[in-house]
Amino acid sequence: MRLYTTILAPGMRGRRFCYARSVRKPSTSSPHLSSLFARVTLATIAATSSAQPTPPPTQPPASETTVIRPADAAPWAQSPLADDILYQVMPIAWRDSDHDPASPDAPARAAADPYRDGDFRGMNAALPYLSTLGVTGLWSTPIFPSPAYHGYQHAEPDRVNPALGTESQFLDFNRAAHAATLRVFIDLVAYGINRDSALYRDATTNPASPFAGFIAMKDAAAGAPFGYDYRTCTGERVSFAFLDLRNAGARDLVTRWSLKWLDPRGDADRTAAVDGYRLDHVWARYPDSPDGWGYSVNNFWKPWKQALRAAHPDVLTFAEQAKWETFGTDLHPAHDATFAKPFLFAAREAIRTSSAARLHAAVESAIAAILESPASEPPARTLLATLGDHDVDRLASALGATTPRTAPRLKAAAGVLLTQPYPPVIYFGDELGMLGVAAQFGSDANDIPRREPFKWNAVDSFPMTNYLARHADASAHRYSEDRDTRSVEEQLNVKGSLLETYRALIRLRRETPALRRGGYRALESSDPRVWACLRATADQSVLVAVRLSTAATPPGSASPSITLPPGLTIDRELTISDAPLPASSPITAGSSAQIELEPGQTRVFLLSRAPDTH
Question: Does the pTM of the predicted model rise above 0.70?
Answer without folding.
Answer: yes
